[in-house]
Design goal:
5-stranded mixed beta sheet, globular, binds manganese (II) ion
């Protein structure tokens, strides 16, 4: 069984940067051929964005139909841009050794630079206190908080928010600090809610990479972040291969490149592969 994990595709959001392929079922099609099942690990489409939701929902439905035609299982995990009842909060692979979740629940503040951040953090803290102390409880609390952003007119427009960051150096610093601590937050989240997870596969921060993190008094964990399809990030995929009969599981992290008008996996990289026995 081969599982391909992608995140932060943001279907429905316009791509204003030249040289980037648009994100559509057609351009994503080659990736659907790379696995038996594809996990959309959050922010697959902007289904909560007041002005992009119709387009996001339509493209997502087309992608699901394409996956069905190709015989690929498509699994959806909620992100903060696509909070929905029908999406999962997370999945576990290799008997709990791999946790796959979007990542907006990792820290007390999911987007410290947006104007609604204070209100979002309050809703998150309150829901965390009410929900069971599980991955699902924590992600559901983050989902409640995420919805606050989409009801705040000042917060919905991401490019405007990015511009605002650029105009205010203190905000740049807050984003950089948040980026820096994000892998550690992910490791702490796993330590607390999914202690048997040796790997956390996430997205959300739009910063792709692999980090090995030791939490205080806890085990060392790999945090694998698949980045984003939107500018300025570079999209990556994590491929999990579970061998028949439970002999072992391997993980691989690959860049996604633009080739012949579509998105496709880059050549194998030996530096970014792991094995679980
Ligand atoms: Mn996100």
């Amino acid at each position: 069984m081969r599982t391909l994990i992608l995140s932060d595709i943001h279907l429905g959001l316009p791509e204003p940067f030249p040289g980037r392929l648009g994100r559509s079922p057609a351009t994503l099609s080659p990736l659907l051929e790379a696995a038996d099942r594809v996990v959309l690990n959050g922010d697959a489409a902007d289904t909560q964005h007041p002005s992009h939701r119709a387009q996001g929902i339509e493209l997502l439905e087309q992608l699901a139909a394409l996956a069905t035609r190709k015989g690929v299982d498509l699994i959806r995990i909620s992100g903060n841009h696509d909070v929905e009842e029908t999406a999962l909060t997370h999945i576990e692979l290799a008997r709990g050794k791999i946790l796959v979740t979007h990542g907006h629940a990792f820290s007390a503040s999911m987007l410290p630079w947006v104007p609604a951040s204070g209100a979002m953090n309050r809703v998150f803290a309150e829901a965390l206190g009410r929900n069971p102390p599980t991955v699902e409880g924590a992600v559901r609390a983050a989902n409640d908080a995420a919805l606050v952003q989409w009801s705040d007119e000042r917060s919905v427009d991401e490019p405007t928010a990015l511009l605002a960051i650029g105009l205010r150096p203190t905000r740049v610093l807050s984003v950089l600090a948040w980026w820096r601590k994000y892998p550690r937050d992910a490791a702490r989240f796993a330590q607390r809610y999914a202690p048997s997870a040796q790997f956390v596969v996430c997205g959300h921060s739009h910063r792709a990479g692999a980090w090995s993190i030791a939490t205080d008094g806890g085990a060392r964990r790999w945090i694998l972040n698949t980045g984003s399809f939107s500018f300025p990030s570079r999209p990556h995929a994590v491929i999990v291969t579970e061998e028949d009969g439970g002999a072992g599981t391997s993980l691989e992290m690959r860049r996604i490149v633009q080739r012949r008008g579509g998105y496709t996996l880059a050549e194998e990289s030996r530096a970014s592969s792991w094995r679980i026995h």
